[in-house]
């Protein structure tokens, strides 16, 4: 602990996450400051401050001890000291990220009760209890990170837990998906420490548009000359002309939907957005996120209409908004998340590549797997003028990112789902999920040389008979799962042209050449860092004691690999996962913000590797605490 320091609120939580990330990535040789003595393991910060380290993290060897009350500036001063001079701009940008993330955490704490109340799950003051942060937990509140020395135990009555879980027992079809997306936003990213930072947004903008605040707002619309448009000329949302493919997508306001669906045609659609009717002959309408309006106004050939229309709610990704129970719009934003270089604009070609990737996956049918329909999109050649309509399948949709989310009073989403689907057996429910996940992922890897960037945000459980039966295929576990697995947002896919041709499939003509590789180790890097780390290990270790989670994940992966025997791709994947001494990881902070791409050499900042951690499948981190054994606010 840093002597004489006084820190309050969310600062110790965030400072520890930042220090842990820098240690994991060994930025600036920080691991060289780790000392071992009879007093234990520690890292020396600027000024000689010793921070005690302990084992037990999921993705790295040592992390800051829970009792350390770190100051963010002490960690940032150390970062500045170890950084190369060429990285100075990136270091200061990351410092801004840290302060913005801290501000966002504090802001969310102040609105948490209101958000839960608006979700229909208010939290009485008597239900609040302190609990410490976990490496894979939701972002705890300030009171939860306070080291008051008191013993911590589970809530004393099953009644409170049951009452809390009642809240998600039977959500309405029109609200369940957005509700779960909001709850998922209560959970911090398993790896990136400042995920709450949205670069450049004010408190007012966060409250108005960020998913953790459960807002609703109306979109803006821009007229774009038709000759600049590729893709669908008019977004098929309710009311934008007659006869479009939207059909009964619906909106959150039936009267609003009727008003638009009764419009005489495109001219009325332009007029309803406050644009001249005659634009219908020469222009196309593009939906614009309110945060992007100032940037679009700077585009000389685009005209932003003055009248907002179409009430939407943000999903976990923030730039994707729900326009109805089965439809979402993905729109560009001017901000960055998960690093300065991860801008949330939409580059030309990205949407078409995602659609091509979806069609490729549809040629690889797997039992129990559903694909979102992402074939309807348009772009105007500018990073702030593009849109994608995502159509979702029937059923109750629960993002994997929401599984560890806290319920008001006590418990988590995964516990509530287990109560409904598996008699309260969380391990059984997660086992069914993992068999689906690995059955699909291993089949793609071995048979088709394909790895998906389907992390916890891009995967969802689809509950209900409406999801329909799966197709036939080996090793899926679909026959025993009480749900299907939905996959969306496939523009980060990586595929081997050689394997695709060998399987009789046409190699897609991707605009982004980085989506193709014949390097099997590059494919394995994606599988380990996305499918294994984020989609499998993070929820499993967050919900179960580490030994049980390790066994569950390892057994499901081994089961998926077993039918392929000595196939070279199966042997490689087994060597990189089950049999590996260490597991590859991403250097997300290094590539995302700290170091310029010219110095990292990263073709894709989201696929920059170089760090590694212990193989938790072989040696589970004993100190890791599952989220379901912590109290929730």
TrEMBL record:
Pinpoint the Aerobactin siderophore biosynthesis IucA/IucC N-terminal domain residues.
179-403
**Which residues, if any, are the signal sequence?**
none
Limits of the Aerobactin siderophore biosynthesis IucA/IucC-like C-terminal domain? 431-579
| Functional pathway | Siderophore biosynthesis
Q: Which domain of life is it from?
A: Bacteria
Recorded GO MF terms: acid-amino acid ligase activity
The segment annotated Disordered runs over: 124-158, 232-256, 610-633
Composition-biased stretches (Gly residues): 240-250
Would you kindly state one Gene Ontology biological process term found in this protein's UniProt entry? siderophore biosynthetic process
Write one Pfam family the protein is assigned to: IucA_IucC
Family statement drawn from the similarity comment of this UniProt entry: Belongs to the IucA/IucC family.
Annotated PANTHER family: L-2,3-DIAMINOPROPANOATE--CITRATE LIGASE
Name of this protein: Siderophore synthetase component
């Amino acid at each position: 602990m840093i002597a004489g320091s006084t820190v309050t609120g969310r600062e110790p939580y965030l400072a520890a996450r930042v220090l842990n990330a820098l240690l994991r990535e060994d930025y600036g040789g920080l691991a060289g400051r780790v000392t071992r003595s009879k007093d234990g393991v520690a890292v020396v910060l600027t000024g000689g401050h010793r921070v005690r380290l302990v084992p037990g993290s999921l993705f790295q060897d040592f992390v800051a001890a829970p009792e350390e009350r770190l100051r963010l500036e002490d960690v940032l001063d150390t970062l500045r000291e170890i950084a190369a001079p060429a990285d100075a701009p990136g270091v200061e940008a990351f410092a801004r990220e840290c302060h913005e993330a801290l501000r966002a955490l504090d802001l969310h704490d102040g609105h948490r009760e209101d958000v839960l109340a608006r979700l229909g799950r208010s939290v009485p003051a008597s239900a609040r209890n302190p609990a410490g942060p976990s490496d894979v937990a939701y972002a705890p509140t300030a009171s939860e990170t306070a080291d008051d020395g008191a013993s911590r135990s589970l809530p004393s009555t099953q009644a409170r837990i049951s009452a809390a879980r009642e809240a998600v027992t039977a959500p309405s079809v029109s609200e369940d998906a957005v509700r779960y997306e909001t709850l998922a936003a209560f959970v911090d990213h398993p790896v990136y420490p400042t995920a709450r930072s949205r670069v450049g947004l004010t408190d007012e903008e966060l409250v108005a548009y960020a998913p953790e605040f459960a807002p609703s707002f109306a979109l803006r619309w821009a007229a774009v000359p038709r000759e600049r448009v590729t893709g669908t000329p008019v977004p098929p949302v309710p009311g934008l002309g007659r006869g479009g493919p939207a059909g009964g997508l619906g909106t959150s306001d039936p009267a609003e939907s009727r008003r638009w669906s009764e419009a005489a045609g495109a001219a009325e659609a332009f007029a309803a957005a406050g644009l001249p009717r005659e634009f219908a002959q020469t222009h196309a309408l593009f939906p614009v996120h309110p945060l992007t309006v100032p940037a679009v106004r700077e585009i000389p050939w685009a005209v932003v209409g003055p009248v907002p229309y179409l009430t939407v709610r943000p999903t976990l990704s923030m730039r994707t908004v729900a326009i109805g129970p089965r439809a979402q719009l993905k729109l560009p934003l001017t901000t960055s998340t998960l690093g300065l270089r991860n801008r949330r604009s939409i580059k030309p070609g990205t949407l078409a590549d995602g659609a091509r990737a979806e069609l490729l996956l549809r040629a690889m049918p797997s039992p129990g797997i559903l694909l979102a329909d992402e074939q309807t999109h348009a772009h105007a050649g500018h990073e702030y003028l593009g849109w994608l309509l995502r159509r979702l399948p029937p059923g109750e949709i629960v993002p994997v990112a929401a599984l560890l989310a806290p319920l008001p009073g006590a418990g988590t989403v995964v516990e509530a789902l287990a109560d409904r689907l598996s008699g309260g057996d969380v391990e059984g429910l997660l086992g069914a999920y993992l068999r689906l996940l690995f059955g699909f992922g291993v089949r793609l890897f071995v048979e088709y040389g394909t790895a998906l960037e389907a992390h916890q945000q891009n995967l969802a459980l689809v509950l209900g008979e409406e999801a329909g039966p799966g197709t036939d295929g080996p090793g899926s576990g679909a026959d025993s799962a009480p749900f299907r697995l939905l996959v969306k947002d496939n523009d980060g896919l990586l595929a081997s042209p050689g394997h695709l041709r060998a399987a009789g499939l046409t190699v897609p003509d991707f605009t982004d050449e980085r989506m193709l590789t014949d390097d099997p180790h590059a494919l394995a890097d994606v599988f380990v860092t996305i499918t294994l780390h984020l989609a499998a290990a993070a929820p499993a270790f967050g919900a179960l004691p580490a030994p049980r989670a390790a066994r569950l994940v390892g057994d499901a992966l081994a089961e998926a690999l077993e039918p392929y025997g000595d196939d070279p791709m199966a042997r490689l994947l087994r060597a990189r996962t089950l049999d590996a001494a260490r597991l590859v990881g991403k250097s997300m902070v290094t590539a995302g913000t700290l170091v310029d791409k010219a110095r990292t050499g990263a073709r894709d900042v989201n696929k920059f590797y170089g760090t590694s951690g212990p193989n938790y499948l072989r040696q589970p981190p004993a100190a890791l605490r599952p989220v379901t054994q912590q109290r929730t606010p």
